[in-house]
Amino acid sequence: MIYVDNAATSFPKPECVYRAIEECMRYYCANPGRGGHYYARLSSKIVMKARDALSRLFNIDDPMRICITKNATEGLNIAIKGLLKPGDHVIISSMEHNAVTRPVKTLEKEIGIKVTIIKGNDRGEIDPEDFRKSIAVNTKLIICTSASNVNGLIMPIEQIGEIARECEIPFLVDASQGAGYIDIDVEKMHIDMMALPGHKGLYGPQGTGALYIKKGLNINTLMQGGTGSNSEEVYQPGIMPDMFESGTLNTPGIAGLAAGIRFIESYGLANIRTKKYSLVKRLTDALSDIEGVKLYNPYEMDANCGIVAFNIEGIDSAELSSILDRDFSIAARGGLHCAPFAHKTLGTLNSGILRISPGCFNTTQDMDEIADAVKTVCRKLHFM
Fold first, then answer.
1. What are the counts of helices (DSSP H) followed by strands (DSSP E) for the chain?
2. 138: phi then psi, degrees, rounded to nearest 5
3. E strand or H helix at 19, and its extent?
4. Residue 311's beta-bridge partner residues?
5. For the structural domain made of 268-380, what CATH number should be given?
6. Which regions of the chain does DSSP assign to beta strands (E)?
7. What's residue 46's pLDDT?
């Protein structure tokens, strides 16, 4: 099987990730922050190592401003629903995942916030100045994905962040498709909040993620419960990160996440990006020569986070995904990718898109075999 669905979940993981999870499960898995015994202390150290690793990777000056979540979606919901109030205005891009779109549209329906969606061109490209033009007196939040999960387009988050900072509006970034591939610096890019998953570009297991909240932002909690701190109080503690970490953390998963970031540091972020882009370019070049194939992803390295997005004329993307899986043992993703506004922007709302998202463990041979499989499908459809 050729696995090229890394935009959904990276696979396989680096060997150090498997070892870290197993070691935690076998030798010291206890409740971090609950109790002072040896195993609890070891578990707490692992969680702190993960916060430190995340801080290094994204230039976050205080690791305690990072709360551990089970995925990016949880972090986005905490940030969005914990900040916005009735009558507030939020600005998002048309390339957002439903992890952003659904929370803001739900708040629009339930408490009356106002939502502005900045539309991109037919490639999804956004003019940052359109965010500035949409700012109103009641604008309380600007949200943008770091890169599209549909066609890989890298968004101008630094420029949008500059506008948000100038206008003193909090800026939330969904780093689901950028973390571990593009260089994200929360200070340089003026990012006030950032949600990310552990299981994609950071090479951790599913069920891990993080939310960064800049000091000075007041975010309400969505959930209350045991935190291991201020246990004598009947109300949720107001300290970071405890206030957003009710219940037992996924310690083995966090151990794997920390190991995944160590792998990125040892391999080199620039090397990962070069490797992935070389695969994207090889496949994009091959597909561009096949009659019947339409490509949607950016070609340039500095514009693409590592996705090849295409369709074959006359066949639905979900059906094409099924054919590649059944007949060629290629694991890719068709459909709408939980991002209907992005597909509307790209003109693919009815057909969806076939998404190939290689990882750093894929090979040029994998890309060649995918191109050959697409050629075979096109021949059967009489394009060649």
1. 11, 12
2. -100, 15
3. helix 15-27
4. 294
5. 3.90.1150.10
6. 2-3, 66-69, 89-93, 114-118, 139-145, 171-174, 193-197, 209-213, 293-295, 308-312, 330-331, 354-356
7. 95
Q: What's the confidence (pLDDT) of residue 226?
A: 83
The token duo for 232 is: 């004598």
User: Is 98 in contact with 340 (CB distance < 8 Å)?
Assistant: yes
Please name the fold of domain 15-266: Aspartate Aminotransferase; domain 2 (3.40.640)
Distance CA 17, CA 13 (A): 6
Q: Name the packing angle between helices 98-111 and 72-83 (round to 10°).
A: 30
Q: Give the strand order in the sheet containing 89-93.
A: 66-69, 209-213, 193-197, 171-174, 139-145, 89-93, 114-118
Q: How far is CA 248 from CA 253, 267, 290, in A?
A: 12, 32, 52
Q: In the prediction, which pLDDT does 383 show?
A: 62
Q: Measuring CA to CA, which residue among 68, 78, 77, 69 is closest to residue 97?
A: 77
In whole angstroms, give the CA distance from residue 259 to residue 316: 39
pLDDT of residue 36: 84
- Specify the pLDDT at position 384: 52
Place of tokens 């246990």: 231
> pLDDT under 50 in the chain at which residues?
none
Per-residue pLDDT, 236: 84
Report the C-alpha gap between 126 and 148 in whole angstroms. 11
Are 215 and 95 within 8 A, CB to CB? no
The contacts of residue 218 (CB under 8 Å, 6+ apart) are none
Query: What are the residue ranges spanned by the domains of the chain?
Result: 15-266, 268-380
pLDDT at 254: 98
CB 367 within 8 Å of CB 306? no
pTM over 0.90: yes
Cα gap 323→381, rounded to integer Å: 13
> Tell me, what's the pLDDT at 271?
97
Q: Which H or E run contains 319?
A: helix 317-328
194 exposed, middle or buried (CB, 10 Å; 0-12, 13-18, 19+)?
Answer: buried
The pairs formed by 126-133 with CB atoms below 8 angstroms and a separation of 24 or more are 126/93, 126/94, 126/95, 126/155, 126/156, 126/160, 128/156, 128/159, 128/160, 128/162, 128/163, 129/163, 131/91, 131/160, 131/163, 131/164, 132/163, 132/167
* Cβ neighbours around 273 below 10 Å, total: 20
What gap in Å lies between CA 179 and CA 152, rounded to an integer? Answer: 13
SS3 310: strand
